[in-house]
Structures are given as structure tokens and as C-alpha cells.
Design a protein that fits this description.
The protein has 367 residues and is an alpha/beta fold. Helix content is 27%, strand content 25%. The protein folds into two domains: 2-168 and 335-366, Medium-chain alcohol dehydrogenases, catalytic domain (Quinone Oxidoreductase, Chain A, domain 1), CATH 3.90.180.10; 174-311, NAD(P)-binding Rossmann-like Domain (Rossmann fold), CATH 3.40.50. Keywords: Metal-binding, NAD, Oxidoreductase, Zinc.
């Protein structure tokens, strides 16, 4: 079938809106009409070749839509079902069996190579196959092919489906880091570095977990104010003070948990410095360079029992965690609409600029 896509043709260049062809779904695949897709930083680092997916490529990995057709082996969904798309996993390795599919042994192959696991692509432009199947979906498009394992049925018909795509990656990463990876107990203290969609989802997750002290470190005033509205007890501007001293003024003994979403070495170092005894630092931010590194004081690590945890996709099993987040949305505890601004898919380059300038927290593209 013919579809419309936003195509990444070259690193650091604008996306182009083009016509493409999409194959029918294979036995374990699902054809989805996309109604909304989140724009994530990971899409941009893939376009710019930090993730070396061959270009040209159809990216996009926070899709939501309506099932139009399913392969003959698919039993999880049927045509007409509303779904959120998340990352791909094999379903048979030990980590998948442990409900940790983000650590699937085949995660890079199934999410980053630009092909199906067998090396084929279901998307063509100008008669030539292009990279697709990004995170098992490539949803910067009017229609996408996903695998049965990475579609999650949305049972509630009263929710705006076009806004739910970011649950598949960014929002489940931030909320999941707090609710799954940390499993913050009630009354615990947490500092969140970065008030983008991942950080603000973490703020909402910390409120859901009833954390006693929630601190948000964020340079943009409007995002700090939104952080307070979403549940933060304290906000800190890194341009106005020594961040570590400001955090210690609030929690002198150091925090129980710190979540770092920027990937910047200096911020990671600050996050380590404010941990309390047996404090846990979670890292979700993509670093600016593959060789990015920080120095760790081993004596401090051993003396205070500090822990560092790299977190992928909020340690979530999408089939379990996305419905949980949807229940929080329905109850008003996870108001994602406060983060989202919508754009037409044709406006993708404008949306990229708006997001990079901080004029919008989470862009969602409507095909």
C-alpha cells in the first residue's frame, strides 16, 4: 500500500515528507493506521547517527493508532483495536521471560538496525528499500508495521488515543524509572535532573509513589513551574545557585534516589555527589558522545554504599506498565496532556525546532 512518511535522508538535515510503499503484514506483524506519534530525542540522535541506523530511514517510535490488518499468527489484537506501540523484543530469552524485555538479548537487532531480524525492510521509497522497523514500528508515517509483541491494546475508548503514543517510550521511561526501577517507598526523597518529558513523567511517578521530598532541577522557568504543578515540592534553577549545595540544604543527609535525564557528565557528577547513604542514581539520559564518561570516587561509593543503575525503558514490561499508566491518566494522577503540543506530521521540522528551543515539552505529530 502507499503511505506518507517523514524520511530522514541525511544526518543533521531536515526530514522530508515523501510517499512510500508498505508491505502487507507478515504472520506475526500488525498493520496500524497511525493517529499520533511522539517526537523523541532518540529519533533525532538516530537521524544524526549517534545510533548508526542506515539512512535514509523512517524513524518514529512512540506511535499510537488503529489496527487495520493482522498476520495469520496474531491473536493479541484484531482490526479495529486501539493500540499503543512500544519497543520490540524477542519474547523467548531469559530477560523477556523475567518481564524485563528492555534488556532482551536481541534488543539492538530488533530496534536499531533498520530492518526486521531477518534483514528485510517492509518500507520502500522510489522502488528501493529503506531503513524502517525502528523500535519495531517506524511510526513517523501514516501507517506502520509492528510486531505482535510490541503492540499494547488500549481498552478505554474515551481517552484521546493520539496523545497516548509517548507512553511507549519517553513517558514510560521517566515514570518507570521511579515506579519500577527505584520502586520508591512512600516518604523517600528523590531529585530529578531535567524537566523534559522524561523528567516530568518521573515527577508524576514520584507523586504517585508518595515520595516525601521531590526535587526538580531544571533551567527553564516554565518547566519548573509545571514541575511544581505536577507534584514537585522544590525546584532548583542550575543557573542561579550551586545545585549540590541547594539540594543538601533541602535534604542535608543526601537523597535516597537521583534520576539523571540529560546525559551530561557534569550533571551526572552532581547527581552522584548528592546521594545519601545507600543512595541510588538512575541514568536514563543519552550522553552527547559515545565516549562520554565520569569519574567515580570509589572510596565514597564503598563507604556510603552508593549505587548506579543504567535504566532502559523504565524497566517496564509494556503489556503490564502501559495499562497501569493509562489507569493513572484516567484517575487524573498522570496528566500527560499538560506536557503535549500537537503538530501535523508535515510540520515535523518545525516541531523539532520548537522542542529544541524549549517552546514545547513533548511534541506529538498527527499524520
Amino acid at each position: 500500500m502507499e503511505i506518507k512518511v517523514a524520511l530522514a535522508r541525511a544526518a543533521h538535515q531536515e526530514f522530508t515528507i515523501e510517499h512510500a510503499t508498505l508491505e502487507d503484514p507478515r504472520s506475526n506483524e500488525v498493520l496500524i493506521k497511525i493517529v499520533g506519534v511522539g517526537l523523541c530525542h532518540t529519533d533525532l540522535v538516530a537521524r544524526d547517527q549517534f545510533i548508526p541506523i542506515p539512512l535514509p530511514a523512517v524513524l518514529g517510535h512512540e506511535g499510537a493508532g488503529i489496527v487495520e490488518k493482522v498476520g495469520d499468527a496474531v491473536t493479541k489484537v484484531k482490526p479495529g483495536d486501539r493500540v499503543v506501540l512500544s519497543f520490540a523484543s524477542c519474547g523467548v530469552c531469559g530477560k523477556c521471560h523475567d518481564h524485563l524485555p528492555a534488556y532482551c538479548h536481541e534488543f539492538p537487532v530488533r530496534n536499531f538496525l533498520g530492518t526486521r531480524p531477518d534483514g528485510t525492510s517492509g518500507v520502500g521509497v522510489g522502488g528501493q528499500a529503506v531503513s524502517a522497523h525502528f523500535f519495531g514500528q517506524s511510526s513517523f508515517a501514516s501507517h506502520a508495521l509492528a510486531f505482535e509483541r510490541n503492540v499494547v491494546k488500549v481498552a478505554d475508548s474515551d481517552l484521546p488515543l493520539e496523545l497516548l503514543g509517548p507512553l511507549g517510550c519517553g513517558l514510560q521511561t521517566g515514570a518507570g524509572a521511579v515506579m519500577n526501577s527505584f520502586a520508591c517507598p512512600a516518604g523517600s526523597s528523590i531529585v530529578i535532573f531535567g524537566g523534559g518529558p522524561v523528567g516530568l513523567a518521573a515527577v508524576m511517578g514520584a507523586k504517585i509513589r508518595d515520595c516525601g521530598t521531590i526535587i526538580l532541577v531544571e533551567p527553564v522557568e516554565a518547566r519548573r513551574q509545571l514541575g511544581l504543578e505536577l507534584g514537585a515540592h522544590h525546584v532548583i534553577s542550575p543557573a542561579e545557585c550551586n545545585v549540590a549545595e541547594a539540594i543538601r540544604a533541602i535534604v542535608p543527609a543526601g537523597v535516597d534516589f537521583a534520576l539523571e535525564s540529560s546525559g551530561l557528565e557534569a550533571v551526572v557528577a552532581t547527581a552522584l555527589s548528592v546521594l545519601g547513604s545507600r543512595g541510588l542514581l538512575g541514568l536514563v539520559g543519552v550522553p552527547p558522545k559515545p565516549e562520554s564518561a565520569v569519574s567515580v570516587n570509589l572510596a565514597s561509593l564503598i563507604t556510603f554504599g552508593h549505587r548506579i543503575h543504567g535504566i532502559i525503558e523504565g524497566d517496564s514490561d509494556p503489556d503490564i506498565f502501559i495499562p497501569e499508566l493509562i489507569s493513572h491518566i484516567k484517575a487524573g494522577r498522570f496528566p500527560i496532556q499538560k506536557l503535549i503540543k500537537t503538530y501535523a506530521l508535515d510540520e515535523i521540522n518545525h516541531a523539532v525546532e520548537e522542542q529544541l528551543r524549549g517552546n514545547c515539552i513533548k511534541a506529538v505529530l498527527i499524520p
